[in-house]
Fold this sequence. Notes:
Layout: H1 4-24, E1 33-34, E2 39-42, E3 47-49, H2 50-53, E4 57-63, H3 71-84, E5 91-97, H4 105-114, E6 122-126, H5 129-140, E7 154-158, E8 163-169, H6 173-189
Parallel strand pairs: 4-5, 5-6
Antiparallel strand pairs: 1-8, 2-3, 2-6, 4-7, 7-8
Amino acid sequence: MISQKNRFIICIVVGIVIGLLWLKKEEPLPVLGSIPDFVMTNSNNESFGSSDLKDNIWVADFIFTTCAGPCPVMSNEMAIVHQEFIEDESIRTVSYTVNPDYDTPEVLADYAERYNANTEQWHFLTAPYEDIQSIIVNGFKMGDMEEIVFHSTRFALVDKEMNIRGYYIGTEIEDIEELKKDIRRLKKET
Length: 190
């Protein structure tokens, strides 16, 4: 038979354990906006849009293939994210070009090859200038709205319902580590 003193100790220990488990539970990632429907062209010269990404968690960035600045660093970091989740078909990566006059599907296909991209999971998209500007302004809310070639270096994390759940500096290793952690968090959440 358990004495009253031992019952009291057991209740305190159980309370502490429950309290610690409650504190450890993470809050869901915030919803920061949503991505409107879009249709563009991928590096395979096929129509590709928001309906192809629905029900997937995905990470997006804006780059251009002739960039001598941050784009190669961003693409290297995106390649790391892509490779980390390559076995999980519910995780996608998407790179939009901000130079559609030069970045044709063929040019994007060569760029994808340079980063060992599986283009079934890492999508390189182009569209008329106005469509890219629209998704930057009305969807991601990042980058220069007047001159899209002055693009943001941020990555955006998007959930299965097309909601933006986080922004991360695509050239910072610490932010990329946080992004990978948040992808796992979001996967548990859904």
